[in-house]
Amino acid sequence: MGILNMAISSIILVTFSILIFTAGAAFLVLSLIEKEKRAAVRAAMITVPMTTIYLLALLLPDKVQLAIILVSFSLMVIAGILFFVPTRVQQAEFNQPTDQVDEREIIFARARLEPGTPLYESYYRDHPHQKSQDDASREQTGLLSPHARFMDPLHRASAVGSFSLTEALREAVDGPISDEKNQSSVEDLTKTVKKLAKYYGALDCGITVLKPAHIYSHIGRGTGKYGDKINLDHTFAIAFTVEMDFEMTGYGPYAPEVMESARQYVESARVSIQLAAAIRDLGFPARAHIDGNYRVIAPLVARDAGLGEIGRMGLLMTPLQGPRVRIGVVTTEMPLDPNSYRGEPSILDFCRICKKCAHNCPSQSIPKGEREISNGVLRWKINPESCYHYWTIVGTDCGRCLAVCPYSHPDNLLHNLVRWGIRRSGNFRRVALFLDDFFYGKKPPSRGKTFLP
Ligand code: SF4
Ligand code: SF4
Hints:
Elements: H1 2-33, H2 37-56, H3 62-84, H4 107-110, H5 118-126, H6 131-138, H7 153-169, H8 186-200, E1 204-209, E2 236-243, H9 246-249, H10 255-281, E3 286-289, H11 298-304, E4 309-310, E5 316-317, E6 325-332, H12 345-354, H13 356-360, E7 372-374, E8 377-379, H14 384-394, H15 400-404, H16 413-424, H17 426-440
Antiparallel strand pairs: 1-2, 2-6, 3-6, 4-5, 7-8
Helix pairs in contact: 1-2, 1-3, 6-14, 7-10, 8-10, 12-17, 16-17
């Protein structure tokens, strides 16, 4: 009987060591594939001693072996209860801005005002409190300047190549509508636009009823006359995401990050324009909303279309790529079946404890405190002025917040298991944050300054 017990204990201990070794080796290999050196080293640091401990336990007396097995099983059960039994979390509030936003007041529109022009003079006459900070940004070398701190001619050329295409596409957001209106059912039209968006290259696609709060009140950029009131009488907005490359975003705040950012602005513009043109060919008005030529607030539309939640850094957080996406929007009068806002309270709860973006933001533009009411919405409000000011110094769009976010890890089995646990359990959210800090660092380093030679 004693020999039988010893044999069973030995089998269990060997099984433990094989499981630990396999899981650790798998994480190590995955980390190497993801070029996460620190995570790979730490995986090895944990896997080797733990595997060795279980193997060495084979040399111990059978009573000690039994004790080790019981403690291990107990820890596994406690971990399972702690991490995977769902815990209650406060529901996300579905609140809408009370006032429309005037696009002329956003930082990207203000940055285009040229000193000495009538537009510049009249804008700052009405908004004197914004003038000194905006002028201070104008005095820097500027976004995409070859002389900026983190910019160089090769990376700049790549970003300019992409941004020039987005600029050219701004004229293509609208166009003629077919006289023949397609008579398919609402259900079929809805399925068609969602399938088409993904076929053209979108990751995810959702639809919302277009609300006044989604629409800018006045034109600040893009086609149309600056300052004109926006009359967008479409009934629905189709929002979709395109993925930013995980490795490239890791270069932020250095130049390769803006290469990727610019490339994905092109992608989201291309998909929007293709989708809008397809809808017009089916006989319904449709307008694409692309970088520099929006009539709507894209993250808000995407949130209401069920694509994710707005996190601490003020960007859309999607379930599988976190903030590592760009958003495209098409508004239309095509009859469609909207999605309902899915609200993801676990993202808000995770953002509440995480603060990694805020601690890594080089310009301290992301709040570290609780959400506050801003224009009728309970949210974290970043400081767009100080963020943009930093961009004008370094010459890139930075993206450090996006690179360090624990939700930005690649969409694969391991990270999706963690995301699954994060959604279910508040305890697991805390452990996941600890593990993210342990394996990837509280202040993960950038991948470097250059991607090109
Ligand atoms: S880094 Fe953390 S706090 Fe910031 S958006 Fe991501 S999850 Fe939220
Ligand atoms: S882009 Fe950079 S400067 Fe702006 S909020 Fe993110 S981390 Fe901060």
